[in-house]
Automatic annotation (TrEMBL):
Oxidoreductase recorded as keyword: yes
Gene Ontology molecular function terms on file: L-malate dehydrogenase (NAD+) activity
Parts forming coiled coils: none
Domain of life: Bacteria
Organism: Phycicoccus elongatus Lp2
Matches recorded under PROSITE patterns: MDH (PS00068)
Function, as annotated: Catalyzes the reversible oxidation of malate to oxaloacetate.
Protein name from the UniProt record: Malate dehydrogenase
Length: 327
């Protein structure tokens, strides 16, 4: 077998970790022929629980799992990693906004960004799931100036999958009948799923539904789905978040074959989104490089919604600057 791909997961003893690790180890990330070395970071008090999770990983006898390293020192755990999934952070509770977590979680990403900058492999790809994901990714990026900015992404694939599933259900079609759907902006309740550039069996999705359904039902339901899960489960989304984290990283590493997916990436100024902010865009991936889909027509409604969500990103950026977490 070839040299294992080193995949770091932070917050590995948490609830997303408990779904994520077993899927990565079983080949869901890179397929059955690519051996994986898992490098798992936790805070010191959670290492004992993590040891238990590693015992369970052993007990699965996954053919693709070559090795597991655990620890509480980011520089040791991130040494030589090719992919880093930064999940470890406090989840919100009922009644909180994701931005309420900025002060509590933001600091985690200064140290982890700096450690990745020192010891990760040259080809490292970094995906932040821990909330508020877009701004935490911005913090990590700002603290790792030697890693190219485009290697820092944040997760809006869960929102994408929710949007896809809800649209397909409403129209009574298969999710595979939907193309071009994407989330724009921040992973908060201002996010915008654009149905004007989405096609369902070749037809524009917005033409197949009532305009009132888009504004009053669809957009708010997609945008507040995380809160609805917390209310129902008493805990935030875990299995679906793990699934989306794998979807994003797999597509980034292996390509999308022309398919459009939602990725939060550092803006290059496309569509008027302020350069440097980590915002969700429609993207495709080829040869390990993503591209923001260009040339889409945005109507006035879409432009307003995207601008409102990007304003939230700018405000979070200003807050973390005030907290001294970015330069
Ligand atoms: N972007 C998205 O779509 C989604 C993001 N999330 C976010 O993912 C994060 C994790 O969620 P859960 O796994 O449910 O939380 P959890 O509380 O079950 O697990 C978090 C784990 O992170 C660990 N941790 C805390 N600080 C750490 C550090 N400095 N280094 C390494 N590990 C650390 C904790 O010990 C804990 O084991 C939360 O911030 C949550 O809001 C959750 C769902 C979707
Ligand atoms: O809503 C939350 O706090 C967890 C999350 O990000 C999601 O499920 O989208």
């Amino acid at each position: 077998m070839s040299t294992p791909v080193k995949v770091a997961v932070t917050g590995a003893a948490g609830q997303i970790g408990y779904s994520l690790l077993f899927r990565i180890a079983s080949g869901a990330l890179l397929g059955p022929d690519t051996p994986i070395e898992l490098r798992l970071l936790e805070i010191t008090p959670a290492l004992k629980a993590l040891e238990g999770v590693v015992m369970e990983l052993d007990d699965c006898a996954f053919p693709t799992l070559a090795n597991v390293v655990i620890g509480d020192d980011p520089e040791q755990v991130f040494d030589g990693v090719n992919a880093a999934m930064l999940v470890g952070a406090m989840p919100r509770k009922e009644g909180m906004d994701r931005a309420d977590l900025l002060a509590a979680n933001g600091r985690i990403f200064t140290g982890q960004g700096a450690a990745l900058g020192k010891v990760a492999a040259d080809d490292v790809k970094i995906l932040v799931t821990g909330n508020p994901a877009n701004t935490n990714a911005l913090i990590a990026k700002s603290n790792a100036p030697d890693i190219p900015a485009e290697r820092f992404n944040a997760l809006t694939r869960l929102d994408h999958n929710r949007a896809l599933s809800m649209l397909a259900k409403h129209l009574e079609v298969a999710v595979t009948d939907v193309e071009g759907l994407a989330i724009w902006g921040n992973h908060d309740d201002s996010m915008y799923p654009d149905l004007y550039n989405t096609r369902v069996n070749g037809k524009v999705a917005a033409d197949l539904v009532d305009e009132a359904w888009i504004t009053d039902t669809y957009i708010p339901t997609v945008a507040t789905r995380g809160g609805a899960i917390i209310k129902a489960r008493g805990l935030s989304s875990a299995a679906s978040a793990a699934n989306a984290t794998i979807d994003h990283m797999r597509d980034w590493m292996l390509g999308t074959d022309g398919k459009v997916v939602s990725m939060s990436v550092p803006s290059d100024g496309s569509y008027g989104v302020e350069e440097g902010l980590i915002s969700s865009f429609p993207c495709t991936v080829a040869d390990g490089q993503y591209s923001i889909v260009q040339g889409l027509e945005l109507n006035e409604f879409s432009k307003e919604r995207i601008a409102a969500s990007v304003a939230r990103l700018a405000s979070e950026r200003d807050q973390v600057r005030e907290l001294g977490l970015i330069g």
